[in-house]
Specification:
Number of strands of chain A: 0
Distance between the termini of chain B: 20 Å
Strand order of the largest sheet of chain B: 1-2
Strand content of chain B: 5-15%
Helix content of chain A: over 70%
Shape of chain A: elongated
Radius of gyration of chain A: 23 Å
Number of helices of chain B: 3
Largest sheet of chain A: none
Strand content of chain A: under 5%
Oligomer: heterotrimer
Shape of chain B: elongated
Chains: A mainly alpha, B mainly alpha, C alpha+beta
Number of helices of chain A: 3
Order of helices and strands of chain A: HHH
Structural class of chain B: mainly alpha
Number of strands of chain B: 2
Radius of gyration of chain B: 18 Å
């Protein structure tokens, strides 16, 4: 048995776009950039930087590294990128908690 | 990031090899006037490279060989200039590898501490 | 030796060559009055020949001694009848070594040795600066 009034409300609900949260790379974007996508990209580039630093560290261990500064710059970059990502994540979690605590 | 991944093992093997090289270089310099003394040479790089290329755990130790340099009349073949350069080179490389190890620990610490920034 | 600190290794090879040059020069000067009988060759001056290592067109890897060549075996015939080595005419063979020239070479070798030491010093400082990149004090 179908209730036409409820069916009408159901149609209205499905036609509104879903809310974008602080995480969730698959959410549709209603604003310019999706924060979740940004964080996802950030994590990937941190991972890449750490792998690059590891490669250079192994070269330094075997003595095949030609330029010392290449390794030092890469290691500084990956350290800073990791710290930045962690800080961004913390701020995002903090902001999310603030929003959740707001009285409705 | 586990503490016993390939990079960390390679770095600790390099530290061991480099400090062995420092000791052998000091030995060579101490024996610069000993008749018949042949200078020692440490090689860990070839074993390390081979282990990395084969995909085996790069846990290698340095091997001590003899220098092929020509000897003087008293049978001693220690070259002071080569040993001095080796000391400087090994010292700088040791600093570099220690820094690499510190960086790996720092990244792990950052992830653990998380919100402590 | 690794390529990582190439400047230090190049300068180190220079140190070896200039030290050998100084050895040869001091040997020449020590033997400047070594008399030999005329039946033998004179004491021959030693020249150290050096050649750069590494291929042309790339940053080299220093210098190495490519050989030792000897000077004139004829020497100078000097009239010295008192000398126990003198032949029946009273001549002995003295080496053809010019002390002034040897002194000039000695100064050049010493300066070159010091220059290479300075290179090692500066290069080591530069590399240590590089190792400080990103370090928090």
């Amino acid at each position: 048995m179908s209730i036409p009034a409820i069916g009408g409300i159901g149609a209205a609900l499905t036609s509104t776009p879903p809310l974008t949260g602080p995480v969730g790379p698959s959410d549709a974007t209603t604003t310019g950039t999706d924060f979740g996508k940004l964080l996802g990209h950030g994590l990937q580039s941190v991972q890449d930087a750490q792998t690059h630093t590891d490669q250079l560290a192994v070269q330094a261990a075997t003595g095949d590294l030609t330029d010392v500064h290449d390794y030092m710059i890469a290691s500084t970059q990956s350290t800073l990128m990791t710290e930045l990502t962690v800080a961004v994540r913390n701020k995002a979690v903090e902001a999310f908690n603030d929003i959740m605590r707001m009285p409705l | 990031m586990p503490l016993d991944d390939v990079t960390m093992t390679a770095l600790t093997s390099a530290l061991r090899g480099l400090s062995l090289r420092q000791r052998i270089t000091a030995d060579n310099i101490a024996n610069i006037n000993t008749p018949g003394y042949q200078a020692g040479r440490v090689d860990f790089e070839s074993a390390l490279r081979a282990a990395l290329n084969d995909g085996v755990t790069p846990e290698v130790a340095g091997t001590v060989g003899e220098s092929a340099a020509p000897s003087r009349e008293d049978g001693n073949n220690v070259n002071l200039d080569d040993e001095s350069v080796s000391m400087i080179d090994t010292g700088l490389r040791y600093q570099l590898v220690v820094d690499a190890v510190n960086t790996k620990f720092q990244l792990l610490r950052d992830a653990i501490k998380g919100g402590g920034l | 030796m690794s390529d990582m600190f190439g400047a230090i290794n190049s300068a180190g090879s220079g140190l070896t060559v200039y030290r050998q040059w100084l050895d040869a020069i001091s040997d020449n000067i020590a033997n400047i009055n070594t008399a030999r009988p005329t039946s033998e060759a004179a004491f021959q001056q030693r020249w150290v020949e050096a050649a750069p290592t590494g291929q042309p067109g790339e940053a080299g890897s220093g210098v190495a001694v490519s050989g030792i060549s000897l000077g004139d075996p004829q020497g100078r015939l000097v009239y010295d009848p008192q000398n126990p080595l003198a032949d029946k005419n009273g001549y002995v063979r003295m080496p053809d070594i010019d002390l002034g020239e040897q002194m000039v070479q000695m100064i050049m070798a010493q300066r070159a040795y010091q220059a290479n030491l300075a290179v090692i010093d500066r290069a080591r400082d530069a590399y240590q600066q590089a190792l400080q990149i990103g370090r928090q004090s």
